[in-house]
Every structure is written in structure tokens, then in C-alpha cells.
Amino acid sequence: MASPPTEYDGQKSIGGAVPRFSWGSSLAILIILGLAGWSYYGTQFDILDLLTNTEPASRFVSEMFPPDFSLATLQATGQGVLETFHMSFLGALIGAIVAFPLAALGTRNIETVGASRSEKIVRAVPYHAARFVLNVFRSVPDILWALVFVVALGLGPFPGTLALAVHSAGVLGKLYSETLEAVPSRPVEALASTGADGFQSFLFGMLPQGMSNFTSLTLYQWECNIRSATILGFVGAGGIGQQILISMNLFDYPKVATLVGATVIVVLVVDRFSASVRKRITD
Fold it and tell me: Which residue of 97, 123, 193, 256 has the fewest CB atoms within a 10 Å radius of its CB?
């Protein structure tokens, strides 16, 4: 007959689940705490001021109600929503089209077995060039791209669409290349063993395995573009954000409430739609 577990056995099983901290993890925690304190001091973060000085914010919110549901405001809101939708969708689509060839060139797992040293160097040139372009596209925020295109092309949704497209290309190109590098290598190696060249191995071995992830990532980028398109309007790049800025400057806060409410609804609807489609793809 087995003896019941003793108190020591229970303590031992519980103690085994407690994580052990090394000097490296302890040092990392201290560094994070130090950076948090330094950032707290550098940003002059004051939670008490946030909790006590609520009069300006409450006055602003109270002036937004009741929202303006006049026909002119609803028409302007609908136009701004459609413009934001067009900018975000076309920006994501163009970004995906630009990102795909750059991601293919910027993928490290392209077959180089049997190639000479000079051939490997030649093949490394487009890889590093594509990576450099993607880093430039991604490292510059979309609102700065919008400022550049607004100066070059003028106000409106066209420069905003280009800004979203460029930034989306950088983000999607990075994610696409990481997806391709993470696919199982055995199908690619099997194709290479049958005499397929690098392009054929990529086209029939790597690409089919990453297509579902490509679609999911593109849909997620479209979600992000919906939010970004609203912000780009504050620099004159079209969309509903531009109408919000104009209404704020005119102190027309009831109209601002209507525009902001419509923006929230559109973002929630697009997020829900995209999430359901991505779930169907990944399941």
C-alpha cells in the first residue's frame, strides 16, 4: 500500500515550480527598473496631476455633447469615412505588392548550395539591397512620409495613400521575409535535389507554405492603416482626420464628437471583419 504524500513531498513539488533567477536575469530586471525610473523622471510623469487636474478634459468632453447629427455633418462624416477606407485599403494593397518582391530578395534561405564564392557574393547584393530598402521604408513613420508627400504633391488623400503604401511595404516586407525564412526547409531541399533552381524552389517550395500567413499579415496591416489614415489627416493627408482637425480649429466640438464616433465604429467593424477572415485562414 502506497504511503500518503508527506508535507515535505508537497513542498518539494511546489518548490520545483518556482523559477530560478540567475545573475543575468537579476541584472536585466535592475536595468529595466533603472530605465523605467530614468524615463519617469525624464518625461516628468505625474500621476497625481493627471488624477486631480481633470477640469480642462471634463470641460472639453462636456462641450462635445450632444453630438452634431445634422445632415451636413453626416454627409461630411460619410465622405471622410469613405476616404479613410480608400486610403487604408489601397495603401495596404500597394504596400503588399511592393513588399512581395523585396521580401523574396530579402529572404536568407534562397538556395546557394554548390555555388562558388563569387556567386554567393553576387547573390548577397540583392539580399542586402532589399533589406536596406525595407529598413528605410519601415524606420520612417508613416506620418513623416505623409509630410514628405504633402509637400511634394499637395493636400489630399493621394499623398496619404502613398505614405501608407510606403510604410506598409516596409512592415510587410519584413514580416513576409521572416515568414519565408521560418517555413520548413524539407520541401525546398527536395525540390533542389531534383534539379530545381533557386527561383523554382522558392516558387513551388517556400511560397505555397507562406501564402496563408501572407494573407493574414496583409489583413492585419490593413487594420493598422485604418488607424494610421485617421492620424495622417492631421498633417493634411486627407481622410476623416483632416475633418476632425478642421472642426477642432473651429471649436465645433459637437461635430468632432460625431467624427470621432464614426471613426471608432469603422475601426471596430474593420477589426472584427479582419479578425474573422484571419481566423478562417489560419484554422
Answer: 193
Residue pair 247/259 in contact (Cβ under 8 Å)? The answer is yes
**What is the spatial distance between Cα 259 and Cα 215, in angstroms, rounded to a whole number?**
30
Q: What are 1-33's pLDDT values in tens digits?
A: 455 555 444 444 444 555 566 787 888 899 999
Q: What is the pTM of this model?
A: 0.78
Q: Break the chain into its structural domains and give their ranges.
A: 70-282
DSSP string covering 134-203 = HHHHHHS-HHHHHHHHHHHH-SSHHHHHHHHHHHHHHHHHHHHHHHHHHS-SHHHHHHHHTT--HHHHII
Task: Identify the segments of the chain with pLDDT beneath 70.
Answer: 1-21, 109-120, 188-189, 191-193, 195-201, 203-204, 282-283
